[in-house]
Amino acid sequence: MIPREQVLTYLHEKQESNGGYTGNDITKLAEFLNVTSQGLNRRLAYWIQNDKEFSSFVYLGKEKPSITLSEFLEIKYKFVENPIQVKKGIYDEIQTKRDLEPV
Q1: Are 28 and 66 in contact (CB under 8 A)?
Q2: According to DSSP H, which parts of 1-103 are helical?
Q3: What is the spatial distance between Cα 38 and Cα 76, in angstroms, rounded to a whole number?
Q4: SS3 21
Q5: In whole angstroms, what is the distance from residue 93 CA to residue 103 CA?
Q6: Nearest one of 84, 8, 78 to 40, comparing CA atoms
Q7: Cα angle: 87, vertex 88, 93; to 5 degrees
């Protein structure tokens, strides 16, 4: 039996910290719960369709995106501000900010 509350708590934490959950997160959770990832995926699909608490979670894909939500919004804002701006310059700025942030 897959504990609903434990899955709900885990996905809520992922939603707050990463903006959603990934397939890799589900695999790690399945290993922790000692169930198969396919079984957990089936149960999660059921909960998403039938449980309002699960329907608000965002699936980000198999792996974590290489760009954060704030970086995406920054890129979007810069293109709205100046549509013909060179993309390479924006990406270089973001990479410089990443390099300066402590890990």
Answers
A1: no
A2: 4-18, 23-33, 37-50, 52-55, 69-81, 87-100
A3: 36
A4: strand
A5: 18
A6: 8
A7: 100
Q: DSSP 3-state assignment of 62?
A: coil
The rounded distance, in Å, linking the Cα atoms of 79 and 25 is 32
User: Using CA atoms, how far apart are residues 56 and 8, in angstroms rounded to an integer?
Assistant: 11
Please give the model's pTM, rounded to 2 decimal places: 0.61
pLDDT per position as a tens digit, 14-71: 988 888 888 889 999 999 999 998 999 999 999 999 989 888 888 888 776 677 778 8
Length of the chain: 103
- Read off the tokens for 15: 């939603």
